[in-house]
Design a protein that fits this description.
It is a single chain. This protein has helices at about 40-50, 100, 150-155, 160-170, and strands at about 1-10, 15-25, 30-40, 65-70, 85, 120, 125, 135-140, 145. The protein is of the alpha+beta class and about 190 residues long.
Length: about 190
């Protein structure tokens, strides 16, 4: 285990402020990421203010993470130190339920356990802490490569708002010559 600085809150009414948080040392298939940028999503505010009713404090939001690989577990094969990578809202799953075996970890029977924040950090046996921090440790299967040609600050929001819009467009075969409508307000609409 190591300690790093995060930016979070101690209760629903308190402002976000620096605090010390625990991170697990990289296990065999873990990637430790030095966080360079973390997008700000309205979900982060809902979580920090306990508007969904499940926040445990201290709470560190942030699920649009871009950074550089700092350390690797001995079994990691997908990344090397220095790679530019990203992490979204999921950092783990049970990997054994029907959904996980089909590559649909977002429907894992384990529910919110594998969330970047608001889940449960099984190694440390405490609530998971998000990307408003200096570092994060994530299993390599939940880390995404970010092209070096992409501005890392601009890439961070793609890990939530970007994928939220891209997924249905891809699912429904949107492309040249097709019409689509995106309805809503704010960053997604």
């Amino acid at each position: 285990m190591f300690v790093c600085t995060g930016y979070g809150t101690q209760d629903p009414a308190a402002p976000l402020a620096p605090l010390q948080i625990n991170r697990r040392d990289p296990g065999e298939f873990d990637v430790e990421i030095e966080i360079l940028y973390c997008g700000v999503c309205h979900s982060d505010l809902h979580f920090a203010r306990n508007e969904w009713g499940f926040t445990q404090y201290p709470a560190v939001p942030g699920h649009e993470i871009v950074g550089r690989v700092a350390r690797l577990g001995g079994g990691v094969t997908k990344y090397q130190a220095g790679d530019l990578v990203g992490v979204g809202c999921m950092v783990d799953s049970c990997r054994s339920c029907v959904s996980c075996r089909e590559g649909l970890e977002q429907y894992c029977d384990g529910g919110f356990a594998g969330q970047t924040y608001g889940g449960f950090e099984s190694v440390l046996q405490e609530p998971s802490k998000g990307g408003y921090a200096e570092r994060i440790v994530v299993d390599e299967n939940f880390v995404l490569r970010i092209p070096e040609t992409l501005d890392p600050a601009a890439a961070a929001p793609l890990l939530c708002a970007g994928i939220t819009l891209y997924s249905p467009l891809r699912h429904w075969g949107a492309g040249p010559g097709k019409k689509v409508g995106i309805i809503g307000l704010g960053g997604l609409g």
